[in-house]
Amino acid sequence: MNHICEEIEIWSPCDDILVNNCEQNYALIVLNCRIDLNVDPKKLLNLWRKANLRITVDGGTKRWLKWINAHNFEDRDIAAPDLITGDMDSLPDNVLVYFQEKGSKVIKTPDQNETDYTKSLRELKKHCDMHSIKINTIFVLADTSGRFDQILANINTLFKAPSFLGEKKIYHIASNSITWLLKPGSHKIIIPENLRRDQEWCALIPIGSSCKATTTGLKWNLNNTKLSFGELVSSSNTYNGQPFVTISNDSYLVWSMGIQSIL
Question: Which residues form the Thiamin pyrophosphokinase thiamin-binding domain (predicted)?
């Protein structure tokens, strides 16, 4: 009898982001949200510096400039984004000119049928295709506090992105969490020791449709359990001490995990 071995997708964003162990081809996007990551500023700048492509989105450009000014980085050419995108309704002209003079390319995207974030991903693909830039992963500075509609709009972009970006991994990095979308299939998420030791929170959220999931490595594991709004949602879960979590899911599932213990 022939057996088909299902491929397991491996996820280890904490190492990539916080341990500066990221050897993959990646892009970094700054959305119009506060940038108050409680991580060593040098690590964030290093993540920026090593990116194959760096994009600031509309008002995120102003926030990025404010952040680098607050941390007194002298090499401003390195801090300049490769692309500045958006409808430009929340970006002061002086900030735009400042980065243009340092070589940033500006692409105005006035279409109001999509968010500036979604449009920035489309521009990312165009730019990479045009310049033969290989990108496997996209890190997005997208804090989860503030306006609820924008939080959901960012999650909606995660659902839309595979239709034009394919299999690229997209991580939302907030001040104390990382969030991403798990497609149907089998997954293995590497959990740093500090997060396991401190019982940091994690969650599996079935946005858009119900989902049956089976897990290992959690304090409250699922066994072909149906997750659905109006029924069970696995929020405020944590880890059982294993170095990784496995998840098998039959529909799209949002995974979010606290990272306060390793910042």
Answer: 185-253
Cβ-in-10-Å burial (0-12, 13-18, 19+) of 54 comes to: buried
pLDDT in tens, 128-172: 999 999 999 999 999 776 788 889 999 999 999 999 999 999 999
Our CA angle for 175, 38, 190, nearest 5°, is: 70
Average pLDDT, the chain: 90
Instruction: Concatenate the DSSP letters of all residues of 1-52 into one string.
Output: -----PPEEEE-HHHHHHS----S-EEEEE-SS-----S-HHHHHHHHHH-S
For the chain, the straight-line distance linking the first and the last C-alpha, in angstroms and rounded, comes to: 49
Strands (E), the chain: 8-11, 26-30, 53-57, 83-86, 105-108, 137-141, 169-173, 177-182, 185-190, 202-205, 211-216, 225-227, 234-237, 244-249, 253-258
Token pair listed for 178: 């990382």
